[in-house]
Design goal:
InterPro entries: 6-phosphogluconolactonase_DevB, 6PGL, Glc/Gal-6P_isomerase, NagB/RpiA_transferase-like. It holds the Pfam family Glucosamine_iso. With 256 residues, the protein is of the alpha/beta class. 27% of the residues lie in helices and 18% in strands. The protein has six helices and ten strands; from the N terminus they run E-H-E-H-E-E-H-H-E-E-E-H-E-H-E-E. The strands form two sheets. The chain has a seven-stranded parallel beta sheet with strand order 3-2-5-8-9-1-10. Strands 4-7-6 form a three-stranded antiparallel beta sheet. Bound molecules: 6-phosphogluconic acid. The site of 6-phosphogluconic acid has 10 residues, from helix 2. 6-phosphogluconic acid binds next to helix 2.
Length: 256
């Protein structure tokens, strides 16, 4: 494990969501002070959705120039538009529908009714990433990428035991046999995830203790995909007390 991975522990899921929201607002304001624009990657899952709701409910979010932020997703369930399964719908409901953003900068994956062929849907998102990339690059430089982690250690839709986690050529892959329903998904690949400046993994609950402990202990990415989530500048595991049960004491940074 490298030295720029940190674990910040909060007492419970609510305080965790509030703390990550506050930190996001502060950090994104700093990033927008120094740059014309920012790219943020959102995640599905209950914990990250709670973070988005906490951002929405924070008065400090009025100080964010939302129109300069591009929003992306790490993965998506390949279902029809409007399905409550879709990560983008959950993020819109929790935050995006309530802030003054630039709709042209909201980059949701295609739904199965927009592009019925899943390979084409993956290629379409890859093209969208490339269109927003600096010259000669295949994807933007992501400032902050949020990730959730499943009890099995999956991140985005890269699951243990499936070949997607070792994909190094494609930037976006179709997933045809997700062990967690729904089976059809679209996902960024690990090289794209690892290109982010900051990866923020947000985890709550005792079922996350084992994947977190294994990821920090250097498990293989094939067994615990979360072990491969390392950002260019910083990787932070924001966790609650229950998820922290198997984290070695010396890796826990003071949370303030
Ligand atoms: O696509 C999915 O099935 C979920 O979005 C999943 O990947 C989720 O992000 C993690 O399982 C963490 O979920 P929680 O935040 O609810 O623990």
């Amino acid at each position: 494990m490298t030295t720029d991975r940190r674990v910040l522990v909060h007492p419970d899921k609510d305080s965790l969501a509030g703390a990550v929201a506050a930190r996001f607002i502060t950090k994104i304001i700093d990033i927008l002070d120094e740059n014309d624009e920012a790219h943020v990657v959102l995640s599905g899952g209950s914990v990250n959705t709670a973070v988005l709701a906490a951002i929405r409910n924070s008065p400090a979010q009025n100080n964010v120039d939302w129109k300069r932020i591009s929003f992306w997703w790490g993965d998506e369930r390949f279902v029809e538009a409007g399905s409550s399964d879709r990560n983008d719908g959950q993020a819109r409901e929790a935050l995006l529908d309530h802030i003054p953003l630039d709709e042209a900068k909201v980059h949701a994956f295609a739904s199965s009714d927009e592009i019925p062929d899943i390979d084409e849907a993956a290629a379409s998102y890859a093209a969208e990433l490339e269109a927003a990339a600096p010259d000669g690059q295949r994807y933007p430089r992501f400032d902050i990428m949020f990730l959730g982690v499943g009890p099995d250690g999956h991140i985005a839709s890269l699951f243990p035991g499936l070949s997607g986690i070792t994909e190094t050529e494609k930037t976006v892959i179709p997933v045809l046999n997700s062990p967690k329903p729904p089976p059809l998904r679209l996902s960024l690949t690990l090289p794209v995830i690892r290109s982010a400046d900051r990866i923020w993994l947000v985890m709550a609950g005792s079922d996350k203790a084992s994947p977190l402990g294994l990821a920090l202990a250097g498990a293989s990415i094939e067994e615990v995909p979360a072990a491969g989530a390392e950002g260019r500048k910083r990787t932070v595991f924001f966790v609650d007390q229950d998820a922290a049960a198997e984290v070695p004491e010396n890796l826990i940074a003071p949370s303030y």
